[in-house]
Amino acid sequence: MPAIRSVIFDCYSTLIDIKTDESKKEVFDYLSLYLRYYGASIGGVELKASLEQEKKRYLKSTTERYPEVDLEAVFRRLLSKAGLGNPFLAESCCKLFRLLSRERFELYPDTLPVLQQMKRAGYALAVVSDAQRVFCLNEGEMLGINQFFDHMVLSTQFGFRKPDPRLFGIACSLLGVPAAEAVYVGNDPDKDVEGAKRAGMKVVLVDRDHNAVDGEVKPDFRAHDLRQTWRWIQTSS
Fold it and tell me: How far apart are the C-alpha atoms of 28 and 30, rounded to whole Å?
């Protein structure tokens, strides 16, 4: 078995402990109030319906098997229809939407220690995540983890999401590491395990809650946390 030279991570629910609720009424009520500063008159209920409609329209415009919605592009179209052409408003709406919908946002206790140890050991590190570029990079910076990664491959940069194996292949190419010499660390048995294995990578499934059910494709190792993941990688390298 080839030695592991690179570790590629999922972001949310693997490195970052996050809980969001994007359906909350107050999210759209506050966004509606915010848009009044720019002259828009659109209520929270109408705003929510318009956002969902634009998401569906966006998805219909792609032929990808696993399409990804670009929230900033969706907001840009929605705001344009409302007569708001401010070039920065879509970005600020996305970030306010994220902030209002977030209920928990912090690193897992083992995230920083393990990343520090892997970096010191000389592993090439990257992220492959189904995430919105408009706020994911900022959130990684807020929590101090971006510094560890040579590359961050986000689904909204490409228009498709996991388990599409292309995302994992892009990360390996950017790192200059063959897929067989890379391991992917994620928490989703279907998106993470299936996608990375199809790309030719080894996979560790991090099952912090001890309730993940294996899909058709099995991981190379099942870990309870990142420390256990790190120990397995060391013995496999």
Answer: 5
Q: Which residues contact 21 (CB under 8 A, 6 or more apart)?
A: 27, 101, 103
What integer pLDDT is reported at residue 37 of this predicted model? 94
Final residue belonging to a domain, choices 103, 132, 149: 103
**pLDDT tier at 1 (50, 70, 90 boundaries)?**
low
Q: Looking at the domain assignment, is residue 55 inside a domain?
A: yes
Mean pLDDT across the stretch 205-224? 89
Q: By residue range, what is the domain housing residue 212?
A: 6-18+105-236
Taking residues 149-172, what's their average pLDDT?
98
Nearest residue to 112 via CA among 140, 93, 136 = 140
For 53-120, the DSSP string reads HHHHHHHHT---SSB---HHHHHHHHHHHTT---TTHHHHHHHHHHHHHEEEEEE-TTHHHHHHHHHH
